[in-house]
Amino acid sequence: MPSSEPSSERTASGITVGAGPRGLTASGVRLTRSVRLALGVLVLILLGAVGYVLSTVPPTGNAWYPKCTLHSATGLHCPGCGTTRAAHALLNGHIGQAIAYNAIVFLIFPLLPVLQFGARRIQRVTMWFALTAILLFGVLRNVPAEPFSRLAPHQLGATEELPRP
Prior knowledge:
This is DUF2752 domain-containing protein. By secondary structure, the chain is mainly alpha-helical. 47% of the residues lie in helices and 5% in strands. The chain has a domain at 67-151. It contains 7 helices and 3 strands. A hairpin with a 4-residue loop joins strand 1 and strand 2. 11% of the residues are buried. The mean pLDDT is 79.
């Protein structure tokens, strides 16, 4: 009787082709443990380099960071406007300023593990909550009236800054 496990063969590059569902990539190729470890180390190095650049090079108007296309074309703030400045402020310990640049980031990022590892039903509810929050944030931050105008990216005054930890 044939086995229900698919046959697998290892190529010279350390990639196992035709293995079971665990560890498969989108193309159906299973990576060996050493290849996955090398990719993980590479991702950590890249994240560290991006973090270093973000913490040392301020995203000012004449910096080489990409500008928001929607804001450049229409003057409206998309839900992501201010995220680079928020990351720079956060990496330099200015939590209040980071929230002033883009508050939705602090609501959505903690939900990412739930979206990745939560039960299927919780993932759906969390995804709809996150999408609704992002869309609502994107609309409300463009309303030119208090308190909604405070959702647009802005520089805090000296009295508004939270103390550094």
